[in-house]
Amino acid sequence: MAEPTFEENLAQLEQIVANLEQGNVPLEQALDQFKTGVTLSKQLEKTLKEAEQTVTQMVKEDGTTVTFVPEKNA
């Protein structure tokens, strides 16, 4: 089975948050959903950090990469 996409994980996390906000989930189920939500949150954060690192890399003409640092406007 294929690993869920970022969007699928985000949708699942949003559903868990909505369920917990409603407050009508049994305690044991709420704890399980909370644990799943924390795991999803960590996976999403990791994916975003990896994407940020990829976006901030520039490939030079010789094939090497350098980190992109935007110029600050004074």
Topology, please?
Layout: H1 6-22, H2 27-55, E1 57-59, E2 65-67
Antiparallel strand pairs: 1-2
Describe the fold and architecture.
The chain is mainly alpha-helical and 74 residues long. The chain has one domain. The chain has helices at 6-22, 27-55; strands at 57-59, 65-67. The chain has a two-stranded antiparallel ribbon with strand order 1-2.
Indicate the proportion of strand residues: 5-15%
Number of helices: 2
The class by helix and strand makeup works out as: mainly alpha
Query: How many structural domains are formed by the residues?
Result: 1
Query: Cα distance, first to last residue?
Result: 51 Å
Describe the structure concisely for a colleague.
This protein is mainly alpha-helical and 74 residues long. The chain is 62% helix and 8% strand.
Which descriptors apply to this entry?
8% strand; 2 helices; two-stranded antiparallel ribbon; mainly alpha; 74 residues; 62% helix
